[in-house]
Amino acid sequence: MSGFRAPAAHNREVFDRAVDEITEATMKLLDGLEIRGSAARSTVEG
């Protein structure tokens, strides 16, 4: 989202916090989705 993979040292804390928050939001979204139809796939928990 930010356009870079390794932030400058002075931005590392806010960058890492944002990555954690985005990861959590993504997991909530994926866990809450309802998959319908005969082609539903099983998932690997991790």
Could you characterize the architecture of this molecule?
The chain is mostly helical. Helices cover 46% and strands 0% of the residues. It is built from 1 helix and no strands. The radius of gyration is 16 Å and the shape is elongated.
List keywords for this structure.
single chain, 46 residues, mainly alpha
Q: Mean pLDDT across all residues, rounded?
A: 87
Strand content bin:
under 5%
Number of helices: 1
Major sheet attributes: none
Strand segment tally: 0
Order of helices and strands: H
**Low-pLDDT residue intervals, each spanning 5 or more residues:** none
**Amount of helix:** 40-55%
Summarize the structure.
The chain has one helix at 12-32. By secondary structure, the protein is an all-alpha fold.
Provide the fold topology.
Elements: H1 12-32
